[in-house]
Amino acid sequence: MPPTHPPRRRFGASIASLLAAGALPPSLLAQTREAGTYPSRPVKVVLPFAPGSVTDLITRILADRLSQRLGQPFVVDNKAGGNGTIGAGAVAHAAPDGYTILFTTNTTHSIIEALLKQVPYDPQKDFTPIARLAGIPSLVVANPALPIASIEQFVAYAKANPGKLRYGFGNSSGQIGGATLERELGIRMVAVPYKGNPQAAQDVMAGHLEAMIADVATAQPFVKAGRLRALAVLTDKRLTLMPDVPTLAETVSPGFDVIAWFGAFGPAHMPTQALDVLARELNLAVQDPGIDAQLRGNGIAPGFVGPAAFGPLLHRERARWMALARSAGIEPQ
Question: Residue 158's domain spans which residues?
Fold first, then answer.
């Protein structure tokens, strides 16, 4: 009976000799090198926002976890600018091999087409959705020197001083939230954009702005220290971390509910193995009690949605955020 193993040995030997001779086509060479267990080398994690932001905090917590679990460095690369389009565009056009991934928010994938006329990628077609990982709630905060003590008094003060109050925002949630409030409540303020919420918070505390829409992770330490006054959260339910802060919905704007999402993507056509490994490990990460406590302690709401459900969720979120932008009167620039 003829042996069954020699043909396999001859095939393996021929591949090895071709590799040694550099005779394989580049595409087959790349596939051969990556055929082992993923990841076999460091992975670049692109974050399209600035260091020190709440997204930077989440990204570094999860990248560290992935590095520990998978035995390869997951290296965070902050590529801020262009409302996140610089970093997101870099991943959209990266090799779809699983070694360049994107951690981002609704800014680059749900709302960007309402903010910019020219977007250097297609949010729907140029990415592989890996997972939705968390929600990032925001709130209205003010300089304590402002002669108000509640969101109702803030609105009354804004109406009595049209065009005089300056408020900052460092992301799309703050931009949409502030513009929606102005439109719904009939108030007129001066919106001041920032590259990130930490910079805007510093200017509120310094008196250069009267208020801002901030994520909870940025604002909470300053609220505790008495350097910022928390007026209302943008979600429709109060936050466990700040239970005494009312919602906009229960005070001045019934039905108001805005929360950003945070998720992970790869380029389109990312290998199934890489997708499965990353989704599995990220699911385990957000369920880890230590990571869960660390995120919730910063006002972040962990919540995993896997690849199969994340795609449809993205379509719904895009429709919701685009509608919010239109109703707020925001025009793409």
Answer: 138-251
> Which of 192, 223, 251 is the C-terminal boundary of a domain?
251
Is residue 19 in some structural domain? no
From first to last of its 333 residues, the chain has per-residue pLDDT tens of 444 444 433 333 333 344 344 444 544 444 444 446 999 999 999 999 989 899 999 999 999 999 999 999 999 999 998 999 999 999 999 999 999 999 999 999 999 999 999 999 999 999 999 999 999 999 999 999 999 999 999 999 999 999 999 999 998 889 999 999 999 999 999 999 998 899 999 999 999 999 999 999 999 999 999 999 999 999 999 999 999 999 999 999 999 999 999 999 999 999 999 999 999 999 999 999 999 999 999 999 999 999 999 999 999 999 999 999 988 888 888
Question: For the whole model, what pTM was predicted?
Answer: 0.85
Residue of 102, 105, 41, 109 lying closest to 77 (CA atoms): 102
Residue at 279 is within a domain: yes
End-of-domain residue from the set 199, 225, 251: 251
Strand ordering across the sheet containing 211-215: 190-193, 166-169, 211-215, 138-142, 229-233
The DSSP call for residue 53 is: S
Within this chain, do residues 219 and 70 fall inside the same structural domain, yes or no?
no
What is the C-alpha separation between 291 and 302, in angstroms, rounded? 9
Distance in angstroms between the alpha carbons of the first and the last residue of the chain: 75
User: Residue 110 gets which letter from DSSP?
Assistant: I
Split into its structural domains, the chain has a count of 2
CATH number for 284 = 3.40.190.150
